[in-house]
Amino acid sequence: MLYRLWPDKKAMFVAVLERVYDASLRSWEKLLSPTDERSAAERLLAYEATHHGEFGFYRLIFAGLSETDDPQIWSGCARWF
Q: Which residue segment(s) compose the domain that 41 sits in?
C-alpha cells in the first residue's frame, strides 16, 4: 500500500523528514510569537525540554544525518540547519 504513495523506501524517508521539519517549524513559529516576558530562546528551550523525543522525530533526523552522502536525504536534513 505504501509503495502506491512513494516509489521506494528512500522517497518515503525523505517525505518523513520533510513532514517532521514542517511540523517542528509550525510548533516553533507559535512559540516565537511573544506570549510572556521570556525570550524566544527561553520559550523554545522550555518547550523542547518538556516535549523532546515525544514523538521520536529526532530519531528520524539522526538516521537521516547518517546518510548525508545521499543528495536526496541530505536535502531533507539540510533544512534543519
A: 7-78
**In this predicted structure, what is the pLDDT of residue 81?**
54
DSSP single-letter state for residue 39: -
Angle, helix 9-32 to helix 57-65, in steps of 10 degrees: 120
| In the chain, % of residues over pLDDT 90 | 0
Enter the C-alpha cell of residue 47.
518547550
Query: 56's torsion region: left (phi>0), alpha (psi -120 to 50) or beta?
Result: left
Q: Identify the CA nearest to 73 among candidates 18, 3, 5.
A: 18
Position 1 in a domain: no
Read off the pLDDT of residues 17-36 as tens digits, 9 standing for 90 and up. 888 888 888 888 888 887 78
Q: Which of 35, 63, 17 is nearest to 44 (CA)?
A: 35
